[in-house]
């Protein structure tokens, strides 16, 4: 192996932090010293380079995880807590989404201002989502999180360096976006849409509550995209816990139905839209015209499924510019 009992003492004396390799899943079974490949070649990720800024981040994350490990049994930290955090964030964001649809001031940011989801529709969706979360998602998470440690996912008390966690999370977003694009595109084939995906498109004007409003088969299919990155990297379970929550928050944002001043779709790189965001996915629900990716736009750009969205955005910009000129005149 890369590390041994003798090396552990040397690592500790030199101040090395416990880390797992990003894509090489061979690791120290005790989790007490840095993986050799990082110790030799990635000096940036060692504790020797930690600054006064990075130390509090690492220690805070480590304290939080250590508290969970010592306070609760494994099924609480690895199953109940991730599931309850998903339920909690979904509930809070859904309530905010319903308020945003009905608030007159914030309604000016609504992407489809003439469409409002009825109370009856939202009530039906809430009952349906309770069944989805407790009868589909909970059993899936319980089975997945119970067995992942057998496939190399670390459950040790020692956490990897927080910067490695960031790198892994960025990789997960990339892999999820790629996998989601192709799986979502398949769901728009005649068979996929008729038998599975049409349930999700009952909301032609998206709202946060509609994020996971989908056929159980779609939950499983797109869940494969969510776990595509982690299954390659096999990270620490704490990183997986962070990832599933970040992925849900990203999905809630894309389904919010509003383009707020701080929305991701307003971020430009060299004048080009980088993130899909709410406007990208709202276009997909409204016209069923491309815009298949979940987070970014480059897969749609590369595969030519972006044209409907960007052509419509260009027309809207020209219209806004004309109206602005008329007002100034």
Can you tell me about this structure?
- With 329 residues, the protein is mainly alpha-helical.
- The protein is built from 12 helices and 2 strands.
- The protein has helices spanning 5-14, 36-41, 54-71, 74-102, 119-147, 162-187, 190-195, 216-233, 237-254, 277-287, 298-303, 307-328, and strands at 268-269, 272-273.
- The chain has a two-stranded antiparallel sheet.
- A hairpin with a 2-residue loop joins strand 1 and strand 2.
- Helix 4 packs antiparallel against helix 5 (119-147), helix 6 (162-187) runs antiparallel to helix 8 (216-233) and helix 6 packs across helix 9 (237-254).
- The longest helix has 29 residues, at 74-102.
- The N and C termini lie far apart (75 Å).
Low-confidence stretches: 1-50
Query: What is the C-alpha radius of gyration, as a whole number of Å?
Result: 22 Å
Look at the structure and give the mean pLDDT: 82
Largest sheet: 2 strands, antiparallel
Instruction: Give, in spatial order, the strands making up the sheet with the most strands.
Output: 1-2
Amount of helix: 55-70%
Distance between the termini: 75 Å
Note the beta-strand portion.
under 5%
The secondary-structure class comes to: mainly alpha
- Compute the number of helices: 12
Assembly of the depicted chains:
single chain
Could you spell the SSE succession in H and E letters?
Answer: HHHHHHHHHEEHHH
Structure summarized in a few sentences:
The protein has 329 residues and is mainly alpha-helical. Helix content is 60%, strand content 1%.
Topology:
Elements: H1 5-14, H2 36-41, H3 54-71, H4 74-102, H5 119-147, H6 162-187, H7 190-195, H8 216-233, H9 237-254, E1 268-269, E2 272-273, H10 277-287, H11 298-303, H12 307-328
Antiparallel strand pairs: 1-2
Helix pairs in contact: 4-5, 4-9, 6-8, 6-9
């Amino acid at each position: 192996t890369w590390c041994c009992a003798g090396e552990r003492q040397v690592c500790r004396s030199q101040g090395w932090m416990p880390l797992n390799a990003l894509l090489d899943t061979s690791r120290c079974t005790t989790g007490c010293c840095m993986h050799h490949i990082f110790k030799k070649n990635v000096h940036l990720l060692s504790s020797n380079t930690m600054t006064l800024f990075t130390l509090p981040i690492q220690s805070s994350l480590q304290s939080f995880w250590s508290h969970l490990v010592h306070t609760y049994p494994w099924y609480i930290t690895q199953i109940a807590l991730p599931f309850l955090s998903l339920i909690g964030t979904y509930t809070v964001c859904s309530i905010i989404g319903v308020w945003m649809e009905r608030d007159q001031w914030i309604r000016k940011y609504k992407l489809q201002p003439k469409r409002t989801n009825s109370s009856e529709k939202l009530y039906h969706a809430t009952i349906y989502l309770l069944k989805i979360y407790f009868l589909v998602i909970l059993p899936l998470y319980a089975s997945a999180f119970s067995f992942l440690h057998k496939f190399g996912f670390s459950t040790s008390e020692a956490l990897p360096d927080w910067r490695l966690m960031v790198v892994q999370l960025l990789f997960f977003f990339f892999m999820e976006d790629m996998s989601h694009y192709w799986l979502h595109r398949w769901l728009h084939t005649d068979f996929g849409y008729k038998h599975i995906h049409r349930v999700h498109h009952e909301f032609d004007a998206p709202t946060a509550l509609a994020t996971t409003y989908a056929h159980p088969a779609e939950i499983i299919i797109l869940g494969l995209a969510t776990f595509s990155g982690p299954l390659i990297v096999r990270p620490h379970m704490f990183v997986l816990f962070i990832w599933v929550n970040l992925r849900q928050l990203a999905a809630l944002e894309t389904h919010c139905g509003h383009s707020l001043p701080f929305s991701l779709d307003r971020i430009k790189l060299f004048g080009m839209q980088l993130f899909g965001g709410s406007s990208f996915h709202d276009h997909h629900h409204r016209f069923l015209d491309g815009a298949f990716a979940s987070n970014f736009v480059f897969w749609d750009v590369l595969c030519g499924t972006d044209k409907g969205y960007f052509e419509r955005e260009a027309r809207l910009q020209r219209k806004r510019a004309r109206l602005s000129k008329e007002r100034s005149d």
